[in-house]
Amino acid sequence: MSVNSKINSNHEHRAVWSLLPWFINRTLSAAEQARVESHIKTCITCRIELKQQRQVYDNIQQAELMQQMSNASFNQLKKRIETQPVSQLALFRKKLDNFQKLFFQFPVSRKSFALVFCILLMTTTFIFNAMHEQTLSGNEYRTLAQSSAPLQKSKKPNLIRVIFTDDTDKAQIDTIVSSVYGHIVNGPYKNGVYEILIDGEQKYAMETTDAISALRNNAQVIFAELAHVSLSSE
Amino acid sequence: MATSPGNNKESIYASPRMRAREQQLITETAAGNEKAFEQLYQLYFSRLFQFIFRITRTRNNIEEIINDVMYVVWEKASTYDQTCRPSTWILGIAYFKALKRVEKSMADEDRSVEFDDELDYFPDKSTQWISQVETSNWLEVAFTQLSAEQRAVVEMTYFQGLHYNEIAEIMQCPENTVKTRMFHARRILAKSLQED
């Protein structure tokens, strides 16, 4: 090979070598493409380079940079979320989840859970009502004479509540009431209570406490008690 | 103005149909049609995002650069003479905007080293983010070893599918400069490929 042809060959090799990227992306003109195709048939260096550049090209094509950027960006966001202090609401939800997990890991059905819950609710309501009533009555001792009816203070200090036995008839009741110088002012109520007023203005009038004692001693009287601060008899 | 020589394979960006559509959108944009401009914006967003990222190597302000580029497109749409491909025109604007940003950030880096050495102790968040992308791809590692101009040539050749004379036009440099930049970039990329 002459020096001139060697120089030409070298020049051609360089020219083709520099065109290879655009041979790969197929943007060369027809003449340029033919020139490259002709040269690579005989040049192993260019064929190796071509193979290598194709690899680079394929990698760039498949790089999906936007997807990678999106993944990396999301990882940053995830890190930020993970390092954020837990909010009170999130904390509550977490506790609730833990409770549910703990409770439902036992072999208890949801129906059983609902039943237990109802019982607890009823018990709570009962206790609450009882406490409420106790507060209203001023924590006083309550007797049979007291009902659940609204409170009303007796304006009459000599008023007695009495319950007679079932076999006591009207006449017998009148006799017993007269014996303590009293008269029936109300009753009988549904619960069998009579309200008896002891007439203190009579000549032989009894003290109310004595009248109560006399009544309690009567076998036909089940119950007798002063009604000065008690509830209504209904 | 160069034309695209012998396209044997129509890439998604280089098809005549796409080119005609883009040219139509630019014409309508020049007439003040905001809908057409929005379509053009959507069409170029991911393409510009990748292109700018390849050159600047930072995600910071990419959207801002894209908007700078598209603002010029909106303002100068009437000056587009349709002799070159729309992508050549738009990528040309993007190239210089991105290069300007690279120069600015390099100058900022120099200034920060000069005046505040303590900054070195705080890792740059955007760098961390880039490293996540890089570790998943040898190619991205290789790209960090290239200059902004070399990266632009590789990106425009292998991803955007442009001929070297179009690249020369975009970069406003001689064709031989494009080939030389590609020559050096190829060496570095080949070396990284072998090491992978």
Strand ordering within the main sheet of chain A: 2-3-1-4
Largest interface, and how many residues on either side? A-B, 31 and 40 residues
The shape of chain B, in one word, is: globular
- Helicity of chain A, as a percent range: 55-70%
- Biggest sheet of chain B, in brief? none
Order of helices and strands of chain A: HHHHHHEHEEHE
Domain count of chain B, please report it.
1
The number of helical runs of chain A is: 8
Give the C-alpha Rg of chain A: 54 Å
Q: How far is the N terminus from the C terminus of chain B?
A: 40 Å
Low-confidence segments of chain A: 136-155, 229-234
For the CA atoms, what is the radius of gyration of chain B?
18 Å
Task: Give me the number of helical elements of chain B.
Answer: 9
CATH topology of the domain at 159-226 in chain A: Alpha-Beta Plaits
Provide the low-confidence segments of chain B as ranges: 1-10, 118-125
Name of the top-level CATH class of the domain at 159-226 in chain A: Alpha Beta
Tell me what portion of residues of chain A adopts beta-strand conformation: 5-15%
Shape of chain A from CA axes? rod-shaped
Beta-strand share of residues of chain B: under 5%
Oligomer: heterodimer
Structural class of chain B: mainly alpha
Task: Tell me what you see in this structure.
The complex is a heterodimer of chains A (234) and B (196). With 234 residues, chain A is of the alpha+beta class. Chain A has helices at residues 3-24, 30-40, 44-62, 65-83, 88-104, 110-136, 170-179, 208-217; strands at residues 159-164, 182-186, 193-198, 221-226. Among the domains of chain A are: 3-62, no CATH class; 159-226, Alpha-Beta Plaits. Chain A has a 4-stranded antiparallel sheet with strand order 2-3-1-4, with helices on one face. In chain A, helix 1 packs across helix 2 and helix 1 (3-24) runs parallel beside helix 3 (44-62). With 196 residues, chain B is mainly α. Chain B has a single domain (16-195), classed as Rna Polymerase Sigma Factor, Chain: A, CATH 1.10.1740. In chain B, helix 1 crosses helix 2 (34-56) and helix 8 (164-171) packs across helix 9. The chains are: A alpha+beta (234), B mainly alpha (196). At the A-B interface, helix 1, helix 2, helix 3 and helix 4 of A face helix 2, helix 5, helix 6, helix 7 and helix 9 of B.
